Amino acid sequence: MSVKDLPAWEALKEHANSMQTTHLRDLFLQDSYTDKPEPTSRFETFSVSHDGLLLDFSKQRITQKTVSLLKDLSQDCQLDQWKERLFSGDKINTSENRPALHTALRQPYYNQLLLDEHNIVADVHANLAHMSSMVGRIRAGQWRGYSGLPIDTIVNIGVGGSDLGPLMACNALIDAQPETSHQLKVHFVSSMDGSQIANLLNQLSPATTLFIISSKSFTTIDTLSNANTARQWLKSASGVKDDLLNRRHFIGVSASADKMDLWGIPKNSQLNFWDWTGGRYSMWSAIGLPIALHIGMAAFKEMLSGAHAMDEHFKHAPFEKNLPVQLGMIGIWNINFLNIHAHAILPYDGRLSHLPAYLEQLEMESNGKNVNRQGNVIDYHTCPILWGEIGPNAQHAFYQLLHQGTESVMCDFIAPARRYGGFDSTELEQQHQLSLANCLAQSRLLALGDAAIAGNDTAPTHKRYRGNQPSTTLLFNELTPFSFGQLIALYEHKVFVQSVIWDINPFDQWGVELGKKMATDLLKPLTNEQSSSPFDSSTEGLLCAILSQQRQSEQESH
Ligand code: F6P
Asked: Domains, the chain, ranges and CATH?
């Protein structure tokens, strides 16, 4: 049976017929809900607070009827039972026959979670202890390079889930760095073409640089080619043998110990994680090593605690008060009933500049699927196109389309209430208030359109604002390791909620495989090897053009 056959889906479709033509301006005009003993405002009705987070979804095109029908839909889709299956380690990643247990990575040590009769929480904490000892040594300046000098620079080599989470977290938690005498610089390299690593290596000192090779599979060509370039650079600069370089200058993080062995990472420089941790859900595992090096192990553990607190909330809070459930179900309403297929992520805090890229992978790699759990092609929309940018910067770029374009877009505004310590009048504090004012102004204008500014309804058409673009605002007290952990886990669970309604497996990513295979075939003609198959005329034409350009530059250089 398809989700479209469920009574709640049908009821939501009917309800959407009237809501399609309802403007947010009018919903705010009826801003009093008198079925409660005390009339409440739209904000009071459609916002939820929990543990320092406030989710305001009153600027969504919803009424109480919408929320109640969405609750029915979640029940029809057995959301609670699916949550239970997720947390208990049921093999819900059916196409890979394994559980999705990222939540186990942030469980306190005294908890137990049995997988094949083995307590994996104990494994997680043994792993954290190993990670902690490495972090301690490196941060204390006791990990030395080939010449005996202490390591002062870390380069994480990884891509996708082995890059985006740690990169985002290191930027987000820059203020959480403890003061130490031995300061570490942390860099990230991901791009296959070598441009990032080439630029970076020019600025680094080989004797004091440590590379973390991060790859769940340890087969990703992007990562392995950057790692080989790094080792070659060290070799040429030092004249030292591979063995010493591998020991002093490389740490491997992977679910495949064998492949790390093969590459030459010594056993005690290997950190493992497990195949039940999806790549894009892995920043809580040893993949988070650069985060721990950047902010210290204690702060890393606070981040885990924040995520665990969100897990508990997701598990136990009722529908109406459950942040990930609300976020997920409102997305379903927008996508499947209001036909909105674009989603902008707009953090009003420069420290969250990498959040949009992180969520692009988390959401689109998880839920960008057109086949349900039974393998049938589905005939309803799933994950929308998601993109984003630091909000104030995006105001000077793509907000034009949000305000006056022809596309409906749903937006998430994300901001900390407090920064730089309060209401004093230093320049930085003023800048924070300015950023918040812009955040509130933009979501208000997007919702209400001209009605937000008195008199604008008589302006010429090119100056009019139609409004009715729905948004959610997520406000948190302060950006700390704990609140950051909560925030990311909130989005992870939101993605899960949506996957349950769409009846898809959010934990595999088969859609990325064929392209990698095809690139192997296309490398042949580019490296003077016989290619096995002819390609289409466009690909053949492009290959020809590339090869002739390359031949020409070769001739010019002779
Ligand atoms: O190709 C996609 C992907 O497999 C992502 O799912 C993953 O996060 C990324 O590549 C990197 O994979 P790995 O950690 O195995 O190098």
From this structure: 3-19+46-77+317-508 (3.40.50.10490), 119-298 (3.40.50.10490), 513-557 (no CATH)
